[in-house]
Design goal:
Blueprint: E1 3-8, E2 13-20, E3 25-32, H1 38-42, E4 50-54, E5 58-59, E6 77-79, E7 82-83, H2 96-102, E8 106-109, H3 113-123, E9 126-131, H4 150-155, H5 158-162, H6 168-172, E10 178-180, E11 187-193, H7 198-205, E12 209-215, H8 220-225, E13 230-233, H9 244-253, E14 259-262, H10 264-272, E15 276-293, E16 299-311, E17 320-325, E18 331-336, E19 341-344, H11 359-368
Parallel strand pairs: 3-4, 4-6, 5-7, 6-8, 11-12, 11-13, 13-14, 14-19
Antiparallel strand pairs: 1-2, 1-9, 2-8, 3-9, 10-12, 15-16, 15-17, 17-18, 18-19
Helix pairs in contact: 9-10
Length: 372
């Protein structure tokens, strides 16, 4: 394998081996804690603009299963401790290395991903770059992989220092509307695609919903003209506050028909209702995030992928907080009384799991049936 280097914007450098498609790349470095589901991660549009680090040490051991893809891949890079070259699974069609090459995703293996995770937890997410030429500072005999160099900080190129994740919702949203129907249609739902995962559509279709998926640029007037029984606001990448047009359309939709928002849809709804969002230090990414009911006794294990959170206090008198993250206390859900609208930060449609909260789709179905 060819040598590769992960250069962090704080001046740290990690040496490893090149995997995937070999091209230099820069992105926001984040970590995800899932022990399984690497294919769902790589095909989740919510990772647009980011270099993803897997904390689980062995990746690729069950190969690539196209049936499990959640969407078009949008990651800018991939970091793993060890890449399995000989997968073993009856559903596997080919190895992960080929997937990375075919989708032009550059990556690096042989990196201490637990150390990387510790750095991101302590310092927060930061930009990083995958390169193939040894940085000058590493040519010093005393330099160690994972060490920081003041000289490198000064020498780091402008692209690494100035990169920001922006304009990504338009980038990953579908370009034309399409419809997916069950054998028997009970309800008609419009899903606004901000980077929607396929299992949102599957979860609705399995419950008798005909789902029309529309681009993020679709106006509220056009959505309402379709006479939907309910509106689904999908997950998606980036800073919610930059999506000014989408926020305005949601403002015009809430209160007209039942609305259910997930992840970015949750954040955009909060902004549309006059609330605020904030950027988390290192976000929540993985399939083991504990979420507890605010007015109940249950704690759910959830799948999440986001770097921003709703500021619940900013919606006082407008919405009611329904869920909180059990680790850091950040907001995980809101309901808007009298508006037939509820939203959650986590993924009730999660693949490959957990499924603790998929009952929220049943709640949406009940709401479309006239029950609040």
């Amino acid at each position: 394998m060819k040598d590769a280097y992960l250069v962090l914007s704080n001046g740290m450098v990690f040496e490893g081996k090149a995997i995937g498609y070999q091209k230099e790349t820069v992105g926001e470095l984040v970590f995800t804690t899932g022990m399984v589901g690497y294919m769902e991660t790589l095909t989740d549009p919510s990772y647009a603009g980011q270099i993803v680090t897997q904390t689980f040490p062995l990746i690729g051991n069950y190969g690539v299963i196209p049936e499990d893809f959640e969407g078009e891949t949008a990651v800018r890079g991939y970091v793993v401790r060890e890449l399995c070259e000989e997968p073993s699974n009856f559903r596997s069609e080919y190895e992960l290395q080929k997937f990375l090459e075919d989708h032009e995703i550059p990556g690096i293996c042989g990196v201490d991903t637990r150390e990387l995770t510790r750095i991101l937890r302590e310092e927060g997410v930061m930009n990083a770059k995958i390169v193939y030429e040894m940085p000058e500072c590493m040519k010093n005999d005393d330099f160690e992989s994972g060490a920081s160099s003041a000289e490198l900080v000064e020498a780091v190129d402008e692209e690494l220092l100035r990169y920001t994740v922006s304009g990504v919702v338009h980038e990953v949203s579908c370009k034309e509307a399409y419809t997916v129907s069950p054998e028997q249609v009970l309800y008609k739902v419009v899903l606004i695609d901000y980077g929607a995962k396929k299992n949102i559509v599957r979860s609705l279709v399995n419950r008798g919903c005909e789902v029309t998926v529309v681009p993020e640029s679709t106006s509220a007037e056009e959505v309402l003209a379709m006479n939907p029984d309910g509106i689904m606001l999908s997950n998606g990448p980036g800073d919610p506050a930059e999506n000014v047009y989408c926020i305005e359309q949601i403002r015009q939709l809430v209160g007209k028909v039942p609305v259910f928002g997930i992840c970015l849809g949750h954040q955009l709804t909060a902004l549309a209702m006059g609330g605020k969002t904030m950027k988390l230090k290192y976000g929540h990414r993985g399939a083991n995030q504990p979420v507890r009911e605010v007015m109940g006794t249950r704690t759910y294990i959830t799948s999440q992928n986001h770097g921003y959170a709703v500021v619940a206090e900013s919606l006082k008198g407008i919405g009611e907080e329904t869920y909180r993250n059990a680790n850091d206390g950040s907001n995980e859900g809101m309901i808007y009384p009298g508006k037939k609208c509820f939203t959650v930060q986590f993924h009730p449609e999660a693949c490959g799991g957990p499924k603790d909260t998929d009952h929220l789709f049943d709640r949406f179905i009940s709401m479309m049936g006239g029950n609040d």
